[in-house]
Amino acid sequence: MEWILGLLIIVLGGAAIFVIYLGERISVFETLLGIHPKITTDKLAEHVNFGPNPFGELSGENLWKAMTGETIEDSNIEVGDVDALRGRYEFILTRHIEALVEEGRFDAKNQERSPAKPTLRIPMLRGSVESFIPFVEASTLYEFGQNVETKPEKRDVLAKELDELIGEIFNQAGLELKISLASSLMPMSIGNSNINEQTDPDEDASEITEGETTLALPPGDSSVNPEKSDPES
Q1: ∠ CA 163-169-173 to the nearest 5 degrees?
Q2: Average pLDDT, the chain
Q3: In the chain, which ranges are continuous DSSP H helix?
Q4: What domain range is 17 assigned to?
Q5: Based on the domain organization, do 94 and 190 belong to the same domain?
Q6: Environment class of 133 (CB within 10 Å of its CB; exposed 0-12, middle 13-18, buried 19+)
Q7: Given CA atoms 133, 137, 142, 145 in this order, what sign does their dihedral have?
Q8: Are 148 and 185 in contact (CB under 8 A)?
Q9: Is the pLDDT of residue 43 over 50?
Q10: Phi then psi for 98, rounded to 5 degrees?
Q11: What is the pLDDT of residues 102-142, one digit of tens each?
Q12: From CA 31, how far away is CA 197, in angstroms rounded?
């Protein structure tokens, strides 16, 4: 009798898994056939190529508009609770700013110039999203990267001006610049890499395996021997 009950549980479990799988396949077919009203083939292709969007239907310029309180022209996009997304968006915006400055520095080292990227896809632990910064601000960030390499004697002035610009961008997005990000973008800024200490808010420490490379280490790295650390620090 017990083995019959066990067999029945296994069969029911298998049936449940099959139903869930079948439901996902039906959703995909509805999308491909144009039946599903909210999912387009473009969104499906983006999901397949880049993973899920942590911000739902918000991406690129529409994500920027949602964070800055501007009107989104597409009425079909569900904005949702913007304030709940700001912590995660701060990571995205910071990475985009860092990429623009670093690209300017890289091009300056090679005596090159290239158009600044107002739109840039930012990878996260779970999926990715397109980030958008208005062209004027994006170009200015790129120029800061150029000037950091070509005008090293103005390092302090550039750092101050860069933090002011980043602060303005953050304010537009309803964020507060709590630490200096410019100092970490300057050459030889060892010990001041504030921007690199900001990690993906989706990142779960339990998912980090030995040997895995992450963007940054959280404060208080457990690999440091407490017996050798400075008790005053």
Answers
A1: 135
A2: 75
A3: 2-33, 41-50, 60-68, 86-109, 135-150, 155-172, 182-185
A4: 7-39
A5: yes
A6: buried
A7: negative
A8: yes
A9: yes
A10: -60, -45
A11: 999 999 999 999 999 999 999 888 788 999 999 999 999 99
A12: 40
Pick the closest to residue 151 from 100, 104, 99 (CA basis). 104
Q: Are residues 134 and 26 in the same domain?
A: no
- Other C-beta atoms within 10 Å of 3: how many? 7
Please name every residue paired with 169 in a beta bridge, in sequence order, or none if there are none: none
In-domain check, residue 148: yes
Question: What span, in angstroms and rounded, lies between the C-alpha atoms of 91 and 173?
Answer: 12
Report the length, in residues, of the chain: 233
16 φ/ψ sector (left φ>0, alpha ψ -120 to 50, else beta):
alpha
Look up residue 23 and give its two tokens: 């439901």
> Does 195 fall in a domain?
yes
Measured distance CA(161)–CA(43) in Å, rounded: 39
Residues 15 and 114 in one domain: no
Answer yes or no: pTM beyond 0.90. Answer: no
* Least confident range of 5-14, 134-143, 210-219: 210-219
| Structure-token pair, residue 69 | 């309180």
Question: Do residue 193 and residue 88 come from a single domain?
Answer: yes
Closest CA to 216 of 189, 194, 197, 192: 197
Domain count, the chain: 2
**Residue in this structure with the two tokens 């985009």, named with its chain if needed:** 96
> For residue 207, is it within any domain?
no
How far apart are the C-alpha atoms of 91 and 195, rounded to whole Å? Answer: 9
Regarding whether 26 and 130 lie in a shared domain, the answer is no
Cβ-based neighbour number of residue 1 at 10 Å: 5
CB-based contact 148:105 (threshold 8 Å) = yes
